[in-house]
Design goal:
Elements (H helix, E strand, L loop, with lengths): L68 E7 L5 E7 L4 E8 L9 E2 L18 E3 L2 E3 L4 E4 L4 E4 L20 E4 L9 E4 L4 E3 L3 H10 L1
Antiparallel strand pairs: 1-2, 2-3, 3-4, 5-6, 7-8, 9-10, 10-11
C-alpha cells in the first residue's frame, strides 16, 4: 500500500552522534527535484553510472583561485592510476598512463589543445604525423589505401646511413650514403641490385668515355 506524506515547510532529519547514519533499504529511490549533497566524501558504489547531462563540471566551487591541475582519474591497480587532466598553468589538456591519487605525479603528455594547434586529418587519405609534439596532417602527404599508393607533393630527403640496410624481400630499397662513382649518393638495393644511381652529369661523361 502506497503511503503519502505532505508537509508545509522543510522536513529535517538530524542524527545526534558523528557515527550515526540514515539508512534506506529499497529497490529504487526516486528524487523528483534537485539533489544537493554536501560533505567531504560522496561514494557511488554502482555497476553502471548513467548521466544524462552532456557535460560534467569539475571545480565548480572555485570562483577565483583555480588549482594548477584538475581532471579525471581511473584505477589501474591498487595504487596506480591513469588520468586525463587540464593543466591550468600551460593551458592544455594532458594524459598520463601512470599517476597517483592526486593526479600530480608521473608523466603527463600534452594532447595538443588549448593554445596549441592540432589538425586532424582532413580526409581519409591524409597521413597523420607529429608536428612539434602535436598531431597534424596536410593534403600534400597522403596514402590511398584502395590502390596502396603513397603520395607526396614536395621533396623527399634521404639521410645518410652509416650502415646500408638489409635486403627486403620482394622490394627495392632507396637510401643515401657517401657519394661514389655515380655522383649521386642515392643507392638502390634489392635481391639482384646493390648499386648507386648515376647522376645525369656522370651519365653523360660515361657515354662519352664508353
Amino acid at each position: 500500500m502506497a503511503t503519502y506524506k505532505r508537509i508545509d515547510g522543510d522536513w529535517n532529519i538530524t542524527t545526534i552522534n558523528s557515527v550515526d547514519n540514515v539508512n534506506i533499504t529499497t529497490n529504487t529511490v526516486n528524487v523528483r527535484g534537485n539533489l544537493d549533497v554536501e560533505g567531504n566524501l560522496t561514494y557511488i558504489n554502482v555497476t553502471e553510472l548513467n548521466v544524462k547531462d552532456p557535460f560534467i563540471v569539475l571545480n565548480s566551487s572555485n570562483t577565483g583561485i583555480y588549482p594548477s591541475n584538475s581532471g579525471i582519474l581511473t584505477h589501474k591497480s591498487v595504487s596506480d592510476f591513469a588520468g586525463l587532466r587540464w593543466n591550468n598553468t600551460s593551458a592544455q589538456w594532458e594524459v598520463s598512463n601512470s599517476t597517483s591519487t592526486t593526479g600530480e605525479t608521473g608523466t603527463w603528455v600534452n594532447i595538443a589543445t588549448g593554445s596549441f594547434v592540432s589538425n586532424a586529418a582532413g580526409s581519409n587519405t591524409e597521413v597523420q604525423f607529429n608536428s612539434g609534439g602535436n598531431f597534424d596532417a596536410v593534403p600534400e602527404f597522403t596514402f590511398d589505401q584502395a590502390v596502396n599508393r603513397l603520395e607526396l607533393q614536395g621533396h623527399l630527403a634521404l639521410g645518410n646511413l652509416a650502415v646500408a640496410p638489409a635486403v627486403a624481400a620482394n622490394a627495392v630499397i632507396l637510401f643515401n650514403q657517401t657519394v661514389g662513382g655515380g655522383d649521386s649518393g642515392v643507392y638502390a638495393k634489392s635481391a639482384v641490385v646493390d648499386d648507386e644511381l648515376v647522376s645525369r652529369r656522370r651519365a653523360i661523361a660515361f657515354s662519352i668515355i664508353f
